[in-house]
Amino acid sequence: MMEISNLSKTFTLHNQDAAVIPVMEGANLTVAAGECVALTGESGAGKSTLMRMIYGNYLAASGHIMVGDLDVARASPREILTLRRHVLGYVSQFLRVVPRVPTLDVVADPLLAVGTSRQEARARAGAFLERLNVPQRLWQLSPTTFSGGEQQRVNIARGFAHAYPAMLLDEPTASLDPVNRETVLQMILEAKQRGVAIIGIFHDAQARRQVCDREVDVGAFAPRVPA
Amino acid sequence: MSEGWNKMSDQGQEMDAYNFAYLDEQTKRMIRRAILKALAVPGYQVPFASREMPMPYGWGTGGVQVSAATLTPEDTFKVIDQGADDTTNAVSIRRFFERTAGVATTDETAQASVIQTRHRIPETPLTEDQILVYQVPIPEPLRFLEPSEVETRKMHSLEEYGLMHVKLYEDISRHGEIATSYAYPVKVEGRYVMDPSPIPKFDNPKLSDCPAIQLFGAGREQRIYALPPYTRVVSLDFEDHPFIPSKADHACDLCASRDSYLDEVITDDAGGRMFVCSDTDYCRTRRASATPGLNSPDMTEACS
Amino acid sequence: MTPLLQVRDISRSYGPRIGCADVSFELYPGEVMGIVGESGSGKSTLLGCLAGQLAPDAGEVLFDTRAEGPRDTLKMSEPERRMLGRTDWAFVHQHARDGLRMGVSAGGNVGERLMAVGERHYGEIRTQALDWLGRVEIPDDRVDDRPRAFSGGMQQRLQIARNLVTGPRLVFMDEPTGGLDVSVQARLLDLLRGLVREMGLSAIIVTHDLAVVRLLADRLMVMKDGRVVEGGLTDQVLDDPQHEYTQLLVSSVLQV
């Protein structure tokens, strides 16, 4: 489902004498449908950078990032937008939403984007929020005012609302209490059973063992000639 | 008409102080050209080089110039102001042409060949032998909503008249009905939207299919426009708020007419009032011909 | 799929000074594109050229018309272009007073475009005006008030209703949230996002506010000195800017 080959990334800092900083080189990674692969490596090794490149948020310097039939490293913005809408989900660590939009609509948003009716989208959004124990009285409020844990659960509900065939999870269980942590892990396992290909970052080693089939140390993709 | 003009240019040298009908022949030619163009493009506002006239703007300088360019020595001239021949404005314009053109004047609509008017169309139906000249203060019907002349001209040329209905919409939303009661906008031959000058909307139907030539002159705004005989003129409206040419629901207290446009006249400080025809000639003619008993002398006095 | 708009090599100079130069891009149905850059970068000149308000010196603006498919709007007759301007196109100005008739009621402002395309039933016009006021969250009882009596945010929402009532397919927006309080901006952005999705609108938004494009735009073009220096997915351009100027621009603002 996802196949990364010979991927590299550099940052050019024009405002600091055009310093070129290589951050990744020769990255290779394959994730099959129904498989969950954990990215490991110390802080700053490039786990998030790799995830962002797969999502099209960072540009690749060279190499290929196949998600389904699309090479994200070469795709046009329009193709990436379609990919994000239908194929590739992303649960980031932080919730970024338009202030004032009710939680229920924030979660229903990805469903509306693929053409689900408003009524059905809201119903499914509600089911996810309920499962993640976000009290119903909060559904009509904007999540911008919520606590960190609540925001994280809204973020997860939003990420899982549409059944993407491929997903990127950045610390999905961080800042969750044990009960909700367990629910999220359960959701990941269910997604795997549906055949979803998942790449995740989990600092929580126990969670990693519970849901991941393999671990890939991103440190192996570090550039050989550091700047 | 053309016969008279030729005659005058032959006699041009014999006039001592003034040319016939005040304007010099060059100016008249220029205005006649504008009139002919206006007749050729009904409802279109033709710019013309309006002259200074010996009266202030707002006193009918546009109408006076059109009349001056139209009159021939054989014409019989009538002037009305709000339907009356004897108000200051009408009297001074009539006197002006008596002096500068020496034409015959009349109060009788049927006798006149050229009628200059402010704010009314006579009740007596006009004929093919007559020319009606309107004094126009603001010729641009779109002006109140669109201040830019460049833009309004473009709107006319491209037939973008949605804005005219915005004005009527505003009327209905504010008053529950189209409250515009005078200067009610019309569309001419399905093409140009035109301001009919501040005549009451009661007169609007008379604009259409009229046997007489109708000329409109705006002196300060320097525009002439026209309706040739038998032109189709439609008052703008909405499907669910159709145009209604309303008048006071009353009969004339002098001539008992139910069909003519009425003025409300306050007769005393106690709130006494009466309704009388605004067209004084029409009212007088009706009283002279029939309906005895209604026109008591006191009432005539009260209204004059 | 046919692009809704294909812009090719648009250039416009003011004497020796470049307004914008060699701008090309495609916009697909349902896409929202942001154009950012500082004052004088040429973004407003470009928007004017695209929307038919300014004549470019060179280039083509092909719009996928309903009747005849893609046509160069710059070669259209003026009546055709103006017709487009009140049917399939909409323009939201930065200052509501440039886009509203301040002397006409809110209902009349919304109804104008309907009347301009031939609607002649007062009741129908009013019903649609009220419906649109509701959609932009202006209470029914303000329908007969003039925009002068409205707050800045409300005026801007009225301007949007007035523009969208005829169901346009392409909306040009020039700093639509400029000059509004932050909280009012958020409400407007949310409203715009909802309308864009519901109506399947395509939009081109010119702004200097990176937070606005982050929330509204799928794609982004960065302009400097009249030229496009960088373009791409909005979040990619903002999070991984490639061009020197974009890096400066992104690092100059508070975190968005």
For the structure shown, list the relevant keywords.
heterotrimer; A: 227 residues; Rossmann fold; four-stranded antiparallel sheet; 9 strands; 25% strand; globular; B: alpha/beta; seven-stranded mixed sheet; three-stranded antiparallel sheet; disordered C terminus
Q: What is the largest interface, and how many residues per chain?
A: A-C, 22 and 25 residues
Helix content of chain B: 25-40%
The biggest sheet of chain A, with number of strands, parallel, antiparallel or mixed sense and barrel status, is: 5 strands, parallel
Shape of chain B: globular
- In the sheet with the most strands of chain A, the strands line up as 6-7-8-3-9
| Tally of strands of chain B | 12
What's the name of the CATH homologous superfamily of chain A?
P-loop containing nucleotide triphosphate hydrolases
Major β-sheet strand ordering of chain B: 1-9-8-5-4-2-3
Going by helix content, strand content and strand pairing, the class of chain B is: alpha/beta
CATH class of chain A: Alpha Beta
Please give the alpha-carbon distance between the first and last residues of chain A.
Answer: 33 Å
Description of the structure:
The complex is a heterotrimer of chains A (227), B (304) and C (256). Chain A is an alpha/beta fold. Chain A has helices at residues 47-55, 77-86, 103-113, 118-131, 148-161, 178-193, 205-211, and strands at 2-13, 19-31, 36-40, 62-67, 70-71, 88-91, 166-170, 197-201, 214-217. Chain A is 36% helix and 25% strand. In chain A, the strands form two sheets. A five-stranded parallel β-sheet of chain A has the order 6-7-8-3-9, sandwiched between helices. Chain A has a four-stranded antiparallel β-sheet with strand order 2-1-4-5. In chain A, β4 (62-67) and β5 (70-71) form a beta hairpin. Chain A is globular. The mean pLDDT of chain A is 92. With 304 residues, chain B is of the alpha/beta class. Chain B has nine helices and twelve strands. In chain B, the strands form three sheets. A seven-stranded mixed β-sheet of chain B has the order 1-9-8-5-4-2-3. Residues 1-10 and 295-304 of chain B have low confidence and may be disordered. Chain C has helices spanning 43-50, 78-86, 96-99, 106-116, 122-135, 152-164, 182-199, 210-216, 234-239, 244-252; strands at residues 5-14, 17-27, 32-36, 58-65, 69-72, 89-92, 170-174, 202-206, 219-224, 227-233. Chain C has a six-stranded mixed β-sheet, with helices on both faces. Chain C has a four-stranded antiparallel β-sheet with strand order 2-1-4-5, with helices on one face. Chain C is globular. Chain C starts with a strand and ends with a helix. At the A-C interface, β1 and α2 of A face α7, α9 and α10 of C.
